[in-house]
Amino acid sequence: MVNKITDMSKIRKVIKFHCSGKSNLFISNYLSLSRNTVKKYISLYKVLELSLETIELKTDTELELLFSNSTLQPINPKLQKLYDYFPKMERELKKVGVTIQHMWELYIAANPDGLRSSQFNVHYKTWSNRVNPVMHMHHKAGDKMYVDYAGKTLSVIDKTTGEIKEVQFFVAILGASQYTYAEASLSQQKEDFVSSVENAMRYFGGTPAAIVPDNLKSAVIKSSRFEPTINETLADLAEHYETTILPARAYKPRDKSLVEGAVKILYRRIYVNLKERTFYSLDELNDQIWSLLDIHNHRKLTARPYSRFELFIEDEKDKLQPLPQERFEIKYQSFATVMQNGHVQLSQDKNYYSVPYQYLRKKVKLLYTKSTVEVYYKYNRIATHQRNYKPYMYTTNSEHLASTHQFVADWSATRFIDWATDIDSAVAEFIIKIIDSRNHPEQAFKSCLGILSYEKKVGRVRLINACKRALDFKIYNFKTIQNILENNLDTIDAEQEQDLNQELPEHRNIRGKHYYE
Question: 175, 220, 287, 418: which could join 139 in a potential S-S bond, CB 3.0 to 4.6 Å?
């Protein structure tokens, strides 16, 4: 029958025999096909510039579209010029506002004897089906980044235990240029997924207007035809990078056909080269993935005179939004009640962080990352701290404490010594003697405070003299200063001291410590 399509299995054998070096006559006799038919399919195979491996991977339906009668017609110079125009046209259609009608107007202006609009559309559709036989979608530059995991996993071996660990294969692709990123990650959990998505944007050097994930739990908590519920962590990532999340519809593979196709291609160009090799770390595996990925991105696209990388640099890179300076940090949350001492516990680290004293006994929310801890009360942030991983430690901001607590919190040996030095060196020496005489400096803080407070009660001169007298006695405690001042011993000279001692029993000498007990 005229124009009847040859069985696809025979077409596969024609191409296979041709690639193995068999003559057209041998193929014609072996497959019971006319020599003109064999010549026709071999010629078309050469025009399509497809490899034998690509032909083997295509279904019969896809091959029928490639080798259909509409593509077997001889191409005249006018059509050849039109088909040469289509790759440029396809790139222009990725730009915002550019339509097929607009591209036809430009074509007809440059070729007044060219095809009319309707025939132009028919031939463009035919060309699109040939270079992408399953589906063709127009993608605007910088608009969407599609992300997904491959169904097949890779593996790494733990050097210490010899355990084989399966790792996931993550793929991201920009819609307009088909520029691709891939990496191995430990799991599909939200932490690894969000990290992989961020790594992809850093690799592309910009942020797309939207990210299109599949309906995995790390991206979508609850799928819906109208308003899916986005995972909060992924939503935070989108907010940080000023983009949005547009989940693909459940059971609608055409929504993410681009990334599905990318996964299939990377199976052939990356996965096959790695599955038989041994890797002992994720970094080692990713280094090999990125090396093969670079080759993939620089390889010419089918039936096009440019690569993904060239298309990305020329058409899409400048359309991406700039990246924020800081990387995204995943936030975790917990709830706690402010304790009476003005601190809340982060149970994850068994650590304590201060909040303003006005929020005592209030229930608050803690949002924490790897580096910071934020405390919120009714959607208002009331405290921020650097995260401390050492357990059972208190991280305190003195401004959070009540005024009386702030004063006590500032107590230290250095503070009291500096205070005493401002009064006089004799006072400072006596304070140091008191602190050194205790097993722990804090045991002397109240005594120091009591002594230094005498400056306001009796004046600076009397306090200085009292400290000099106490140093002379070599009795270092608060009661010494108290008795000296109450008995006006700071004002007597040596003769007066001798007269006073004669009036007292021997064991009550004012230089003896029993006098001050």
Answer: 175
Could you tell me the two tokens for 303?
Answer: 């039936």
123 HSE (CA, 13 A, CB side): 21
pLDDT exceeds cutoff 70 at 219: no
Give pTM, 2 decimals: 0.51
In terms of Cα–Cα distance, which of 69, 53, 60, 52 is closest to 10?
Answer: 60
Burial 266-277 (b: 16+ CB within 10 A, else e): bbebbbeebeee
Q: Return the closest-CA partner of residue 194 out of 240, 225, 143.
A: 240
H-assigned helices in 205-324: 232-240, 257-266, 272-274, 282-297, 308-311
Give the up-direction half-sphere exposure of residue 153: CA atoms within 13 A in the CB hemisphere. Answer: 12
User: If we measure between CA atoms, which residue out of 88, 95, 86 comes closest to residue 318?
Assistant: 95
Query: What is the rounded distance in angstroms from the CA atom of residue 153 to the CA atom of residue 168?
Result: 5
Q: Note whether 208 and 144 are within 8 A (CB).
A: yes
Q: pLDDT for 169-212, tens place per residue? A: 898 888 888 888 999 998 888 888 889 999 999 999 999 988 88
In angstroms, the Cα distances linking 320 to 80, 143, 177, 301 are 34, 8, 12, 22
Please state at what angle helix 24-31 crosses helix 35-48, rounded to 10 degrees. 120
438-444 long-range contacts, Cβ below 8 Å, gap at least 24? 441/412, 441/413, 442/411, 444/413
Burial state string for 80-116 with b = 16 or more CB within 10 A and e = fewer than 16: eebbebbbebbbebbeeebebeebbeebeeeeeebbe
Rg (CA), the chain: 41
Q: What SS3 class is residue 391?
A: coil
Q: Report the 10 Å Cβ neighbour count for 289.
A: 22
Backbone angles phi, psi at 421, to 5 degrees: -65, -35
Task: For residue 384, give every residue at least 6 positions away whose Cβ sits within 8 Å of its Cβ, in sequence order, or none.
Answer: 372, 373, 374, 375
As a whole number, the mean pLDDT across the chain is 79
CB 170 within 8 A of CB 184: yes
For the cut 80, the answer to whether the pLDDT of residue 119 exceeds it is yes
Strands 380-386 and 372-377: antiparallel
